[in-house]
Every structure is written in structure tokens, then in C-alpha cells.
């Protein structure tokens, strides 16, 4: 049996979603970079394995309710992702673009890093909106169709894109890009920390960026580490 240190970061978060908060605390990537074993990730980040193991145990013992995403049917999980995470992105981006533009106009003179943050966030917003549509119009309907076929004991013809691995690979690459962009924004903004004396719009923008990052990482984790691997496995059962 694998010990905690021998499990990957993604496996630990899949086992208990509360572990994501522990990895966030120590700056360990649990979504795009979740394939690393815990011990390797700790060495790379130069953090104490013992401290993380203690915090993971505390997370396990914490009685607060968390969703057990790994037990959900794939069609239910994909619907959850659309109704919760996609909806959050669609509602948040217009507000955040407005905040961003106002903050840059008023404060870029004193804080030149805002111009780069503006560029990166506009890029992220554009990429992610296109990304969501690909999932909603192509990949997720195919996953739901496979779930239905398995329940009914029927077989499916190959889709126009060949197999699930093709769009999954594209989605994972786009997740990597989104993760890189939000990490760069976090670095430029000192972890979304507004400067002393910042106006309320400045504070609201950085607070929303922090919230957006948390949602993005959970969103990517659910797809990369649960939905996509299970969809690829299911495809082998239901395709002709």
C-alpha cells in the first residue's frame, strides 16, 4: 500500500478535496502539476514533508462537509462543472474586466505592473471563454452520451474527433496555459495583495482575482484528475 508521500498530489486531492487547501497553503500545484508524487513536490518547493503530512491528517480529521467528487457519475460531474464553475467564470469575467480597466486607468502610473496584469488577464479571459464553449459543445455532450450508453448497455460509433483523448489533450493544454497566466498575475500582484492606500476598486479587483484563482484550480482539478481520466476509461467500454 502506498504511503502518503508516495501518492501523487492529484491522487491526494481526489481522495479528499480538502487537501487542496493544504497544497494551496504550501504553494504546491494540485491541478496541472498534480502528477508529481508528494515527496517530489515537497523537495521541489523546499517545504517540509512532515508539516504537510500533519496538515493533510488534520484535513482528513476535519468534520466539515465536502463534496466527494470522485464518487459522482460523470454526467452529473460534468453538469456540476458547467453549472458551478463555468457559470462562475461567465458571471465574474465582465465584472473583473471592468475592475481591471478602472484600476489601470487610475493607478498604472504609480504601479506599472498593472499594465502587464491587464494584458495577462485580458488574454486569460479571452482564452477561457473559448475553452468553456469547446467543453460545453463538444467534449461534455460526448461524455454524457457515453454515460447513457453504458447505462443502457449500448455501443457508440466513433465521434468525428476520433476519440476522447484528442479533445482531452487540447483541454489539458489550455488548462496549462490558464494556470500559467493566473500564476504570472499572482506573482506580479504579490499574491493579489493590494498596495497600501489602495482604493476600494483596487482591493475588489485583487480580491476577485484571488477568488478566481481558487475556483480555477478546483475547476481544473475536477477535469484533469477525475472527469477526463474516467471518460477515457469509459470510452474503452462503450465504443464499437
Secondary-structure element pattern, one letter each: HHHHHHHH
Shape: globular
What is the total domain count? 2
Distance between the termini: 36 Å
Using only CA atoms, what is the Rg? 20 Å
Overall number of strands: 0
Helix content: over 70%
Contiguous low-pLDDT stretches (5 residues minimum) are none
Mean pLDDT: 91
Beta-strand percentage range: under 5%
Structural notes for this entry:
Keywords: Cytoplasm, Iron, Metal-binding. Residues 80-231 form the Hemerythrin-like domain. This is Regulator of cell morphogenesis and NO signaling. GO terms for molecular function: metal ion binding. One of its GO terms (cellular component) is cytoplasm. The protein is an all-alpha fold and 240 residues long. The chain folds into 2 domains: 4-61, SP0561-like; 72-238, no CATH class. The protein is built from 8 helices and no strands. The longest helix has 40 residues, at 113-152. It is globular, with a radius of gyration of 20 Å. The mean pLDDT is 91.
In short:
With 240 residues, the protein is mainly α. The protein has eight helices and no strands.
Task: Provide key terms for this protein.
mainly alpha, globular, 72% helix, SP0561-like, 240 residues
Architecture blueprint of SSEs:
Layout: H1 9-15, H2 19-25, H3 38-45, H4 49-61, H5 74-107, H6 113-152, H7 165-188, H8 200-238
Helix pairs in contact: 1-8, 5-6, 5-8, 6-7, 6-8, 7-8
Amino acid at each position: 500500500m502506498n504511503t502518503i508521500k508516495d501518492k501523487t498530489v492529484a491522487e491526494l486531492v481526489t481522495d479528499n478535496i480538502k487537501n487542496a487547501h493544504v497544497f494551496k497553503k504550501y504553494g504546491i500545484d494540485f491541478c496541472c502539476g498534480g502528477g508529481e508524487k508528494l515527496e517530489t513536490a515537497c523537495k521541489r518547493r523546499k517545504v517540509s514533508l512532515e508539516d504537510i503530512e500533519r496538515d493533510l491528517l488534520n484535513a482528513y480529521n476535519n468534520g466539515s462537509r465536502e463534496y466527494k467528487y470522485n464518487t459522482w457519475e460523470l454526467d452529473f460531474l460534468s453538469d456540476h462543472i458547467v453549472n458551478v464553475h463555468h457559470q462562475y467564470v461567465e458571471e465574474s469575467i465582465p465584472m473583473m474586466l471592468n475592475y481591471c480597466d478602472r484600476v489601470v486607468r487610475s493607478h498604472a502610473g504609480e504601479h506599472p505592473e498593472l499594465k502587464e496584469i491587464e494584458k495577462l488577464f485580458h488574454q486569460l479571459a479571452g482564452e477561457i471563454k473559448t475553452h468553456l464553449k469547446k467543453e460545453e459543445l463538444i467534449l461534455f455532450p460526448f461524455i454524457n452520451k457515453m454515460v447513457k450508453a453504458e447505462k443502457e448497455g449500448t455501443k457508440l460509433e466513433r465521434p468525428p474527433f476520433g476519440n476522447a483523448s484528442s479533445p482531452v489533450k487540447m483541454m489539458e493544454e489550455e488548462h496549462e496555459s490558464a494556470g500559467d497566466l493566473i500564476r504570472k498575475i499572482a506573482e506580479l500582484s504579490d499574491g493579489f495583495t493590494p498596495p497600501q492606500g489602495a482604493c476600494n476598486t483596487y482591493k475588489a479587483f485583487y480580491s476577485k482575482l484571488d477568488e478566481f484563482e481558487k475556483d480555477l484550480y478546483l475547476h481544473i482539478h475536477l477535469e484533469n484528475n477525475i472527469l477526463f481520466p474516467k471518460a477515457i476509461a469509459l470510452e474503452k467500454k462503450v465504443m464499437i
